[in-house]
Amino acid sequence: MKRNYNKFAIIVSVSVVVLASLASGAIADRVLGFRILDKIFPRGKTVVQQKIVNEESDVISVVKTVGPSVVTVSAVAPKRNVVQFSPFGGFSQRTTGGTPQDIGSGFVVSSDGLIVTNKHVVSNTALAYKVSTSDGSSFDAKTISRDPNNDIAVIKIDPAEASGGGKVLKPVELGDSDNLQVGQFVIAIGTALGEFRNTVTTGVISGLGRGIDAGSNFQGYVERLDNVIQTDAAINPGNSGGPLLNSFGQVIGINVAVAQGANNIAFSIPINTVKDALNAYKQNGKFPAKAYLGAEYQMLSIQIALLNQVPQGAYVVNIAPGSPAEKAGIMRGDVIFKVEGQALTDTNGGLTKIVSGKKIGESLKLTIWRDGNEKEISITLTEARL
After folding, report:
1. CA distance 139 to 132
2. What's the domain range around 197?
3. Fewest CB atoms less than 10 Å from the CB: which of 167, 168, 233, 335?
């Protein structure tokens, strides 16, 4: 009996010592910060922590892979001498132009020197353009082809012009924009504000199938871009023409516009549209021609039309000189409210969609509203000017 009692006492004593040791070790580990238990029993990251680490790794990997393929597009105005008069020093002469100014972004799509960017980035045909890669190499734009159907342009450079010999250009991998999902993680790379090259921003796809109007008084018409991608990734002036990427480093869009007066609302042309345009360019050496009207307009909603006591339609805000619209007698302030006898509304694609479906040389019968009167005008469409 006594032997059993001694055995029990030994067991109890050992247990107390073990428990006391564990308790003191835990206190030292967690309270005093010795972290002895972490070495014995390492703690894994939480699901949220692991997800953040994975996302950061994805971004870093994509930037390392795609960054060298993203370029900066610069414009160069011709050099000219300018005479100035100063009341203190009389006349003086200085030279302007000749210095490249970063204006946009682009990305390499083939190793022989094809660069994709936005058409509006290189729209001024009076300027020369240069392309710079992330390692500082600079190239003259040999040719520029502009797509009249989309805000897309292809710049051709010569890789052999790189200092120190020919440069190996790494093309991007083009993804599939037909299977995108709202909420999908995206990455944008470009020259933000025309100053900060290779700026990286992240976000999500905020919407799909958006339609936006993009135009310019210098081009003389409004271009309707349908089925564009909306994203909240920060895209600033200068990012235009740069790539929108998925987490695999595939280009899923080309950044094109920022919503004015709004935060975190930007748009990208789906890459499948770009691929179709590239295929046409590679087959024919140019983009297919587009019918041209030459009227810049704003679609009136039914509410605005009722408030102003005019028909719903396209309110003409500008006419390009020498355009079919000017030759046919369309004027600023006209409201085009019928095309071929059919009502023109803000839900059927607008005037641009109708014109883009026509061939060069075809005629359109428009019904306009001017000073309270209806008038029918026939217009013969010509080839778009780029």
Report:
1. 6
2. 174-284
3. 168
User: What pLDDT, on a 0 to 100 scale, did the predictor assign at position 217?
Assistant: 39
190-201 residue pLDDT tens: 988 878 888 899
Q: Is the per-residue pLDDT at 294 higher than 70?
A: yes
Round to whole Å and give the CA distance between 13 and 254: 74
Q: What is the pLDDT of residue 289?
A: 75
Mean pLDDT of 243-265: 82
Q: Give the closest residue to 147 by CA, choosing from 218, 223, 229, 73.
A: 223
Q: Burial of 91 by CB count in 10 Å (0-12 exposed, 13-18 middle, 19+ buried)? A: exposed
Considering the domain architecture, whether residues 208 and 256 belong to the same structural domain is answered as yes
Question: Which two structure tokens, joined as six digits, stand for 334?
Answer: 């006209």
**Which of the residues are catalytic?**
120, 151, 240
Q: What is the DSSP letter of 58?
A: H
Q: Distance between terminal CA atoms of the chain?
A: 108
Partners of 155 in the β-ladder? 115, 144
Contacts of 40 (CB under 8 A, 6+ apart): none
Mean pLDDT of the chain, nearest integer: 79
* 265: amino acid identity, one letter: I
